[in-house]
Design brief:
Low-confidence stretches of chain C: 1-25
Largest sheet of chain A: 4 strands, parallel
Number of domains of chain A: 1
Structural class of chain C: alpha/beta
Distance between the termini of chain C: 84 Å
Largest sheet of chain C: 6 strands, parallel
CATH topology of chain A: Rossmann fold
Structural class of chain A: alpha/beta
Number of helices of chain C: 25
Mean pLDDT of chain A: 97
Number of strands of chain C: 10
Shape of chain A: globular
Chains: A alpha/beta (223), B alpha/beta (282), C alpha/beta (495)
Strand content of chain C: 5-15%
Number of helices of chain A: 7
Oligomer: heterotrimer
Distance between the termini of chain A: 58 Å
CATH superfamily of one domain in chain C: NagB/RpiA/CoA transferase-like
Helix content of chain C: 40-55%
CATH class of one domain in chain C: Alpha Beta
Radius of gyration of chain C: 26 Å
CATH class of chain A: Alpha Beta
């Protein structure tokens, strides 16, 4: 017998004569305490993100590229990792070209193995989209894709994320329902709720543990 | 009562019952009650037991003390000697045959009657019925005075600061800390009795029955922290509704040559509300 | 290097560090370790401070006691439902993970689990393994095992990194280095990483970040634990704050997740209440910085992520707990650590004194299944049964009731049937058994009880001043001159 067979046989014997418990899932318990009037969703999300050192800015679908430029300038950063195959990647590239801004754009357009060193040690900032936000916990929903791979939101010390105001949900349960997660998940799905942090040394909170040191969320109010 | 088994099979996966609803209390004060004195109180704090009797009598209640009573069985139960605990528990059952409330001036023993007897006799359907009825009419003293007798105390003593320590099982199984606080608050209405909090009030004093002798280093650290917190609270008096804790805390105070002593809540209440007192702590 | 004068704390080696590393061949008993711990002032201070902090953080997340009670009952039902169909869910999990391209392995023992990991490591000729936080890998002593096979195994969670640097073990399942203060970490970094001494926590974390970033970059294999394995979608869900979990599961070409067989839940939506209970109970956060749901390796067209993902499902005694419906509740655990944060015993002795991978109340009830009661016989007794653990448990494990049950298994005769546990009767003693039989006789015979009390009260003056361990911290109790039975009879008459 294999280990699998032995384990399953043992567990099965222990359940002899029993029937599985019925699913008494109580939707109200995971939704009712976490429901908000639409006008409160964004303020709550901002409050929670800012409480964990996330920066949030209200902007618009037309204005956000300028905000990105400002944020980079403020930090003395002159290059940005973008996903050129995404609408927001294209919009930002267009903005940079049009304004002749001195920002070098870097594309994540080849397997990580081919430029790992540069990604890890020479890429100060990245720009990604999101699939929405969660008011209850101040979270961003991200499902990395071929155009916008997993490490974009993890390795660069500054991560700028775009969030459409219309895609802020009340709570995780409503997200799972609205986006039909159970029907099929990408290889990686993420909730991101602030820059990386740790309190492993004497419970003292420090930001920028292994992931981004800073997270800027640009909320597009008209999108 | 702690857990139930759906489907009846012993193999069935257990699920937690719904969170317990608040206990409902009889609308009227009974004419008669039983007192279960507990073994620790019997031997070490008999005056507290008498003070409990006086408090109940002052409410016009006839108190019955079955002389055959011994111990609730808790020491063996918590030590894993379940059969011995069951035998001793069984010896108590018939002594409280009338449907009068059973009042217990000790939270952990009351918790044993109310919450653990049904587990102990889960395998004996007939006894279980008797035990569940008994559990249903068992009250910790402070709870009984407050919720059933609806006492109104008026304080008659000198101003005093008092700290309340509540046994962990009484706190968690019976909500006794709230009853004790409410009773002290009645006395506080005259601003004579001020209940002061102590550091880590909800934390165990380290008694735990045989725990204190099996693990003396850990239990000793716990009782030293507890006595230090009580001393630092600024309280002139310490009260508790559980004699196990009192035995532990007072033993430590004495060992530390400290003058502070814990007093049973019943004794304090009786003394402060002008009732008869049979004398101070030994 | 121009290090500032070390603080008082840092002149001492981190508590237990050197002792643990160079421990004598004869292992200390639990009681000896507990004795040392309660007398270690720095350790006591570190734990008291840390536990107070964590208790306050958690309390702030559950302002509504009613909501908490209902949610944790829900959490209990979700976990119990999963356990009630565990074999079926494990098979469904394997089927769906396999469909997603994840390779599933089964191990009954830690040796089997290590061998599986080693096979994978060997197949890839891997030399460097980077680990996210995983308590199951601690159960396996994977670092030690792999190092024995010439493979470097580096911890990347800051707390785990610190304890590994100090050649220690985690003292808490969520915050591994909770027994150390900043000064102690500063000394450790100064000694081992040859950096300037600093107690600035931001700086210390940056040192850790820089050291480990290079390691993530170089590692051949990433190892992680799992918080919830979702049968419905074939997914592994991990929570963390640092990003090291995402790094370990994304950067190296191979990801190996190791987990206990009980970690499976039926449906994705089941995670919603459990996640909320987990992060709020553990560190008092509404959610962790990252919730990382992994449902397969990198697809052909994807540009990053591991090319291979493996899951090792480990039994290691869990099926023994599973066999009894009372003990099975132990497996509801979602490893939040709230029970230890609220435990007055853990607060006094810290995690190392337990001598087990899982300390605190959950450690006392799960470890006997992993190591047998022989090795863990003192653990069930090391509790006042105060109930603080059961009160905060987010999945309503009746920890005090299970501790009591383990005491029962501990004192049953070793050969008494039925046998529920390896090591049954490890504290069985004829003498103690006889003493309890005597106690039973005394308390079931009112007449005998009366004689005993008469003797105790009348001879109270003869109480010896020393009564075993009790009088180490207490004066000897003296019986009152007359018992309540006597006083009540005088007052009330015979009843």
């Amino acid at each position: 017998m294999s280990a699998k067979e032995r384990i399953l046989a043992k567990l099965g014997r222990s359940l002899a004569g029993t029937t599985p418990l019925a699913d008494d899932y109580d939707e109200a318990l995971v939704t009712a305490p976490w429901a908000y009037p639409p006008e409160q969703r964004i303020p709550r999300l901002r409050e929670l993100l800012e409480a964990v050192h996330g920066e949030t800015q209200l902007t618009t679908a037309a204005d956000w590229p300028a905000r990105v430029v400002e944020a980079l300038a403020k930090r003395g950063i002159d290059e940005l990792l973008i996903a050129p195959d995404t609408p927001h990647g294209q919009q930002f590239a267009g903005h940079v070209a049009e304004k002749a801004t001195a920002i070098r754009l870097k594309a994540y357009d080849r397997p990580v193995e081919e430029w790992k060193d540069e990604l890890f040690f020479n890429t100060p900032a990245s720009l990604t989209g999101t699939l929405g936000g969660i008011a209850a916990t101040g979270s961003l929903i991200m499902c990395p894709t071929t155009s916008e791979p997993r490490l974009m939101s993890l390795v660069p010390p500054l991560h700028i994320a775009l969030l459409k105001a219309s895609e802020v949900y009340d709570n995780l349960y409503t997200v799972l329902q609205a986006q039909a997660w159970a029907q099929g998940l990408p290889t990686n799905a993420l909730l991101v709720s602030g820059p990386s942090k740790t309190a492993d040394i004497q419970q003292t909170l420090a930001y920028g543990a292994h992931g981004p040191k800073e997270l800027i969320v640009l909320i597009l109010e008209d999108a | 009562m702690s857990q139930h088994t759906p489907g009846g099979s012993v193999n069935a996966t257990r699920v937690a019952p719904p969170p317990p609803a608040p206990r409902s209390y009889p609308a009227q004060k009974p004419t008669d009650v039983y007192l279960f004195g507990t073994c620790v109180l019997d031997l070490f704090y008999p005056d507290a037991g008498m003070d409990a009797i006086h408090l109940l009598e002052r409410e016009g209640i006839h108190v019955h003390f079955p002389q055959g009573q011994t111990c609730c069985g808790q020491p063996a139960y918590t030590s894993g000697y379940t059969a011995e605990a069951r035998a001793v528990a069984r010896a108590q059952l018939d002594l409280f045959a009338r449907d009068w409330p059973v009042v217990i001036p000790s939270g952990s023993c009351a918790g044993m009657f109310r919450h653990h007897y049904p587990d102990l006799f889960a395998g004996e359907p007939d006894t279980l019925k008797q035990v569940e009825a008994l559990a249903g009419r068992t009250y910790e003293l402070a709870e009984f005075l407050l919720e059933v007798c609806k006492v109104r105390f008026e304080d008659s003593g000198e101003p005093v600061k008092v700290a309340l320590h509540t046994s962990c099982s009484a706190r968690r199984e019976m909500g006794t800390h709230l009853h004790g606080r409410a009773l002290l608050a009645q006395l506080a209405q005259l601003e004579q009795v001020e209940r002061v909090d102590h550091d880590h009030e909800s934390e165990c004093c380290g008694f735990g029955g045989t725990f204190s002798v099996r693990m003396p280093d850990i239990a000793g650290a716990m009782v030293r922290d507890k006595t230090a917190a009580l001393k630092d609270s600024g309280a002139a008096e310490v009260v508790s509704a559980d004699c196990g804790c009192l035995l532990n805390i007072n033993g430590a105070f004495e060992k530390q040559y400290d003058r502070l002593r814990g007093e049973h809540l019943a004794s304090f209440l009786l003394r402060r509300s002008g009732g008869r007192n049979t004398g101070g702590q030994s | 290097m121009n290090a500032p004068a070390p603080t008082q704390a840092s002149t001492q080696p981190p508590s237990g560090a050197t002792a643990a590393t160079h421990a004598p061949a004869i292992p200390m008993t639990f009681k000896q370790r507990a004795h040392d711990a309660v007398h270690d002032k720095q350790l006591r201070k570190n734990f008291r401070g840390a536990m107070d902090f964590l208790m306050a953080k958690r309390a702030a997340q559950f302002p509504d006691g009613d909501e908490f009670e209902r949610l944790r009952t829900f959490g209990n039902h979700v976990r119990a439902r999963a356990l009630s169909k565990l074999p079926e869910l494990l098979e469904r999990l394997e089927t769906n993970l396999t469909r997603n391209g994840v390779k599933v392995h089964w191990a009954e023992t830690v040796d089997e689990a290590n061998a599986i990991v080693h096979d994978i490591v060997h197949a890839h000729e891997a030399k460097q393994v980077i680990k996210g936080k995983s308590m199951v890998s601690e159960e396996m002593e994977m670092n030690h095992y792999l190092e024995g096979h010439g493979v470097d195994c580096l911890e990347s969670d800051m707390g785990e990194f610190i304890v590994q640097l100090g050649k220690e073990k985690p003292s808490h399942i969520i915050m591994p280095a909770i027994h150390l203060n900043a000064g102690q970490v500063a000394s450790l970094f100064h000694d081992k990483l040859e950096v300037d001494y600093t107690e600035d926590v931001d700086r210390l974390i940056q040192i850790g970040r820089e050291t480990l970033r290079r390691k993530f970059f170089e590692a051949d294999i990433g190892v992680s634990g799992v918080n919830f394995a979702i049968a419905e979608t074939g997914s592994l869900l991990l929570v963390e704050n640092e990003g090291n979990g995402r790094m370990s599961t994304t950067v190296p070409p191979v990801h190996i997740a190791v987990t206990g067989i009980e970690k499976v839940v039926e449906n994705l939506r089941d995670v919603v209440p459990l996640l909320s209970l987990l992060t709020r109970s553990a560190t008092g956060q509404p959610i962790t910085t990252y919730v990382n749901v992994i449902s397969g390796p990198r697809k052909a067209e994807e540009l990053d992520g591991p090319q291979e993902v493996h899951l090792v499902l480990l039994d290691n005694g869990r099926s023994q707990a599973f066999a009894d419906s009372e003990l099975r509740q132990t497996l509801n655990c979602i490893r939040c650590g709230a029970c230890m944060n609220h435990c007055p015993v853990y607060t006094r002795i810290g995690g190392h004194a337990y001598g087990t991978v899982y300390p605190g109340p959950i450690g006392k009830i799960i470890t006997p299944h992993m190591l047998g009661l022989e090795e863990t016989k003192d653990l069930p007794s090391a509790s006042s049964l105060c109930g603080a653990c059961g009160e905060v448990c987010p999945v309503r494990i009746p920890i005090p009731a299970i501790l009591r049950r383990l005491r029962e298994e501990n004192v049953r005769a070793p050969d008494e049937a039925p046998k529920y546990m390896r090591g049954q009767g490890s504290k069985y003693s004829r003498t103690e058994g006889m003493a309890w039989k005597g106690w039973r006789l005394l308390n079931t015979s009112p007449r005998l009880y009366r004689v005993f009390k008469l003797a105790a009260t009348r001879l109270s003056a003869l109480t010896p001043p020393k009564l075993g361990p009790w009088t180490e911290h207490h004066s000897a109790p003296k019986a009152a001159p007359r018992s309540l039975h006597e006083l009540a009879r005088d007052h009330l008459g015979e009843d």
